Amino acid sequence: xxxxxxxxxxxxxAINMEKALRTMGEWIDQGQRQYVTVxxxxxxxxxxxxxxxxxxxxxSGMTTPDGMAVVWLLRLMGEKQVSRVYGPDLVxxxxxxSLQTGWAHYFYGGAPGVAEKLAxxxxxxxxxxxxxxxxxxxxxxxxxxxxxxxxxxxxxxxADIVWVGLGSPRQEVWMSxxxxxxxxxxxxxxxxxxxxxxxxxxxxxxxxQRSGLEWLYRLxxxxxxxxxxxxxxxxxxxxxxAQLLGLRRFSD
Length: 252
Hints:
This protein is α/β, with parallel strands linked by helices and 252 residues long. The protein is built from 13 helices and eight strands. The protein has one domain: Rossmann fold. The protein is 50% helix and 15% strand. It starts with a strand and ends in an 8-residue tail after the last helix.
């Protein structure tokens, strides 16, 4: 079992990339059904503002530390081995590992054409990669018939990993609702990884990612869409500091 520590009532896995890949491999080998929430600070704040989301994140097989602020908090809590398990990096690492293991991948999400472009780029980068399907559902809610058709296609594909790029928290809700309906060992919600790895949007430079400034790069790139998300970061810092100092307690 992955050790999880609580940050503002969200249980975050104290892991690194190698541990994440090894855990996913164990689920696939054992035929388990699990989902992974890739969790930066804004997702934790979503759970703080909307408590109904918290059980969805806490029921995940892994809740990875996606942002550097979350990594630093876990290290301050004593988990020195923790490193960032960032959505786009997890996709690349799993694809590279699957050249040895034979894992089959399905891409579900993104705007029309993005999943195809993403799969094409990954197959170029990792010759022999097994991509067994892709789909771009509409942004509106699916009808029951459409949803059932998507489930049938995913189940028939023989996928080991379904990468879900519907945006947070929609993708986490989707994975939770479909856990018992899909015969897939691993679902991973990776949000913007579809856009970044397909080349649709640019990623922040590595130095900004490592220094915890990726949020600033993304805010400058998409201010109208993202300003509300990042406006909550000062409150996150305040609440997390209060938790670390024992000034405020969070419990389920």
